[in-house]
Every structure is written in structure tokens, then in C-alpha cells.
Amino acid sequence: MHPWSIKRRLSRALIGFVTLFWIAGVVVAAFAVRLEIIEVFDGALRATGSELVPVALEEYRRKVSGQADLRPSEARSFAFSASRSHVHYLLRDGAGTVVFASRGAPDKPPSIPLKKGFYDYGDYRYYTHFLKDEGVWFVVAHELQERREAAVGMWVGLASPLIALLPIAVFAVWRTVDRTTTPISRVSDELEARSGSDLNPIDPAGLPTELTPVIDSVNKLMTRLKAAIESERAFAANAAHELRNPIAAVRAQIQVLAANLKGTSDSTRAEGLALQLAGLGRRVEKMLQMARAEAGLGHSRELTDLAAIAALVVDDFRQQSNVGARLRFDADDDQACWVAMDQDAVAIVFRNVIENAVHHGRDGEPIEVHVGRDRTVRVVNAGDALPQAELGKLMARFHRGDARQASGSGLGLTIVDMIMRQAGGRLVLASPAQGRADGFEAVIEFPRAV
Does the first or last residue of the chain, that is N or C, have fewer Cβ atoms within 10 Å of its Cβ? Predict the structure, then answer.
């Protein structure tokens, strides 16, 4: 399901409903206005007809008595004229024939029944009633165009304010929804701005009652998670301290024993035991580093001098007999290069990348460590170029790039990649190294200090 916004969906729904009901209200108002206009005009038409009856009968009698052979089409009243009101009258006999009409009345007799009431035909609205004394039907007509113009005028006058107020109503709905969902947006922005290591409780002040239980549950969850992470970090740190020293002590004793047994049949066995203890110590250290990485060591955002940590780790490796002057270190700037990362995490990253270069680099060839101004560290060692398919596997757990090297644990680059992902940085592997035809290069991009 695609992600959706409460604010956007609620705004669209309310604006749609308001607009729909607004339009429906305007339409209903138009029908109501139309019915009222019909009622008013019909009443006026009936009253007008009553007033016109004496005039129509008087003219009809005078013309009929003066011209006995007058044809119905010529029996027109020229005394009555309603140029603006568009009202006309007709006199019809029992057969429906027009015997007399006002000037401007329809020439063709309307096809309406000879029955009292209102009728629409053509462009006119008719009102018919019977004059008993004269034995004729009196029909008064009013043009429908007049009514339409009146209805449109009233509807426009009524709808214009409503239509003009519709954008204001839409803005009011949007503004109300925006203010109502502001606490949700605040919580969302606060959580988005937090780093993975910020597990402090969310302030519930100002939140609606519907969100308070959710925030309380989230705060309890973060409290338990923070306690669990701190406990795991403490265990990993204590384990690293408690296990490293005893193994080193046993190894030292075995080395002394091997020296005392030198020249005897047990000397080789003692030296092999010392090598196994050394390998065990390294594996224990890697497992503890992995435990610390999985506990979220890379999420810490304290400021650390990248160049200073790199120099310390390089000096430590230079003390090893198989490294010595092979390890070359340089930095673009003598000044401090600050990154947002725990110093232990930075040291673990440097140690594993350099150790990988020592184990898998060509013997006797230099290992270059360069710290750039852009907080990018490059570690380059000599060696045969690796295929691209092999590079993608190097960060998998317990995968060794060179099967001949039995001393490696296959966890070094995995630990580096995990910590850098947590810190918001990146580990990039390349072979051959940049600017060379062979070799291996590890590029570490550290997060900027904020």
C-alpha cells in the first residue's frame, strides 16, 4: 500500500464534501427560487387577467357590433398594448377558435384545453377561465422569456455570494485541518530529525488525547530499547576487557614454555599452541567488535578527530614486526578533521581496514593510508586485482578474499560496513586501486560533524 498523508486526505475529503454540499445548496436554492417565481408570476397573471376582462369585452363588443363580417384573424385590439410586461389576451369560443385578441398575441391558437387553469405552450404561459355571461373563454398569456430572465437574475444574485464565499470556505477547511494536524506533523518531524542513537522520550505536551496513548507507548518502547542497548554495549565492553587479557596472559605463558622447550620434541607443539591462542584472541576480539556493532555502536554522534585516531592506529600497527615501515600515513591537513562518530567506532573501523590490508596485501609492498579534507579515508595495498563479483562478497560474514590466508576471520569488512551504515557513512571497495593496474582500495566516507 502506498504511503498517504492524513492531512492531505482529510483536507481533500472535507473540501470535496463542502464543495458538493455547497453546489447542492445552490441548485436547491435555484429550484426553490424558480418555484417561487412561478407562483408569483402566476398570481400576477391571474390578477392581470381579471383586470383585463372588462377592457377586452368592451372592445370585443364594439368591434363585433361595428363589423359583423370581421374575420377572427382581424379581430385585434389596438387599444391595449403591453410592450414591457409581455402580457396578451385571447377570447375563444366553445370550439376553441380565437374570436378576439390583443395586439401582439399569437396568431395561431394555442393547443391548450378549454379548462380553467395554467398551461405552458410554445413561448407563453397561459391562464384560462370561462366567462359565463358572454359564453367565451378568456385566455391571458405571458411570455416565458420574461420569467426565465427573472429566474436567472434572482439565481445569479443568490448564487454569486455563495460562489464567492466557496474559496473562503475551502481555505477555512484547509486551515482548520492544518492546525488540527500540526501536533502530528511536529511529532513526525521530531522523529525524522532524530538520529538512531537519540532514544530520549518524546514530549507529549500539546498533543491531542488521541495521540497521547501512542506517544506514551512509543516512549516506553524507546526507554526499554535504550536500556537494552546500553546493557548490551556494557556487556560487549566488559567482555572485551575480561577475555582479551586472560588470553594474552595464557599466550605469553605458552610462549615462555615454548622457549624453555626449545630443542625438545615438545617445542613444535608448544609453538603451535601459541599460534592457536593468538588466532583465538583475534577471533574473540572480532566477535566482540561484531557484538558492539550490532548493539548500535555506530549510532553515536559525538565529535571525534578523525586524523588523530588514524595516526594512533597507524602507530600501533607500525609496532608489529610484519608491518613496520610498510605502513605509510598522510593527511591533507594538519588541523583536526572532526566527524560525528564515536571514537571507539572510528578506531574499530581503522583497525579492521588496515588489518585487512596487512593480511591480504602483497608481502613487502607498502600500505597507504590517506585522510582527506572531505572526511574520506583511503587505504590502498598491493595485490592481484579482484573480479567485480568477488568484491561484492567481501562484506559478507566469514567470507575471505584469499583462501590462503588462514589467520583472517572473515568479519573485518563486515564490521566496518555495519558501523559505517549506522553512522550514516559508507564503505566502498575497489580493485584495482584508483590510478593503478592492480591492488586493492577501501574508501571510507565518514559523516560530517554537525
Answer: N
